[in-house]
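Side project, low priority. Logging it here so it doesn't get lost.
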Amino acid sequence: MKLNISGNKTSITPEVKKYTEKKINKLCKKYKHFIIAVDLVIEEANSKIEKKTAITKAVIKIAGRDIIASAEARTVFAAVDELERKLTSQLAKEKAKHSPATSRIARSKAYIRNLFNREGKDEETAE
């Protein structure tokens, strides 16, 4: 698994890099069979309403497609936390799509099993 952390209009301090790697590695351990690579960009933006905001954007490359998420908060650490929550949610949905229990074949097999079980019960009640 490849992890790429970069800063746009900001420098990445060792504390931020260590914290971000810890959070992303936690995701990678949980979903190690799906994740191929992670690209993370940390930005600091200035706005008139809030003086400084941190924006984190991530692209997780998995087999077949990419998962994209972004988060915005007052501090970089809060933005990384929010980004982790969003990515966890998206990866859980992706895992549920591809798990054997929810595959199209498994659902059709269960449907056929239930269909034959119902027919057997109908014959027993008819007698």
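Brief comment: The radius of gyration is 22 Å.
Revisit when time allows.
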